[in-house]
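Example 3.2
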Amino acid sequence: MSKNMTVEKTFASAIQNHQKNNFKAAEDLYHQILEIDPNHIKTIFFLGTLSVQTKNFDRAKQMLQKTIQAQPNNVDAHNNLGVVFKEFEEFQKAKDCFEKVIQIQPKHVDALNNLGNVFKQLNEPQKAINYYQKAIEIEPSYINAHQNLMDVCEKTNHITELKNAVSNARTFFKDNPIIKLYEGILLSRNEKFVEAKNCLKLISFETNETNKEILRVSTLAKCYDRIGDTDKAFNYFKKANLLSQKTKIKNFDKNKYLQVIKIRKEFFKKSNIKKWPTLKQPDNEPSPIFLIGFPRSGTTLLDTILRSHPLIEVVEEQFMVEQLINSLNQLPNSKFENIKEIENEQIIKIRKTYFESLESQIQNKNNTKLYIDKLPLNIIHVGEIVRIFPNAKFIVSLRHPCDCVLSCFMQDFELNDAMANFLNLDDAAHLYDAVMNLWIQYTSIFSISGIL
């Protein structure tokens, strides 16, 4: 048998296994072909595609880039490479890949849907909505775009768009549990809690769709809470958090965040602070204002009240202080303790970085306005903030600890190391105690301005 016949026969067998999701067998066959013909481009492409499916993203990137070098107009290679870059959180590169697909093939619905996903990640919901809607216009029965459209509308409180999306999806998928899920959520958002509860109890999701089950269960919990059935509400909140613990928690470490607090509690003490050289903030430099507090303490309500004033603008939930902390970590020796020996030249550079980051979040900057940096858990970084900005001002939102802790337990937060502490009441209470004790410690050793 000739070399070409051997390759083509093996390739046909590989494709057959690939289509049946026999990934290991298909992968072995693809490798056999590449041993015979390292430049067999169809095999390189399909091995790249298989690698995306099996989450071997490094190999997928290599194979798909090689495919594109040989076939610059291979839309599926560009699309799959975009998926890889999205997994690597290289969103600009992912966007470029999907836009390339649409340039070559404007009606490529997977690329339109994927571009919507990128804009959702970039926190540009209206652009995401537009791309999902384009995909649906081209292929009205494209369930992924319907689902993603309803998801982004729900998460960003585009209630009118959510209502239209649910109504449109229902015409194509009458008995689909995903549509039922968002119908129930929409009823809940319209305060029809009994109808929402009844709708959501008709469906459930398997373990491979845990995120949808968490959304269903947490919405049920809120419905029972609003109709006054506190026992069922608590049980459903508990179930939602247990589901999160089993799935989402794997990537996060609640103790890591507690350690961040512990380090600051041990470092920012009167005995240490009194030895520090005095730093002055220039009179002509604005004093940054921070809106801080524990999550669910009322910072969002306070934000809404403050921004109603024409000369106040609140920059919400951005990470300017995190960039400030990163600048400190880049000092010589990269040690947290460097903060006490920091030099004026370094201070000036870090202050400039902060203000540039703040201004990047502001449209049409007006020097007569007050700009407030709102991120509740910046409360744990008050020590660093005051060291860099001695004249910084703080607005602190306080709420009864019991209400705060219970509300955090009931909230379906996007998980990270901090939010991982809210999956049960004991952990939530422990974090509250740690954070607020650190705040009390800060107020006892620093002259903090503007406490409310």
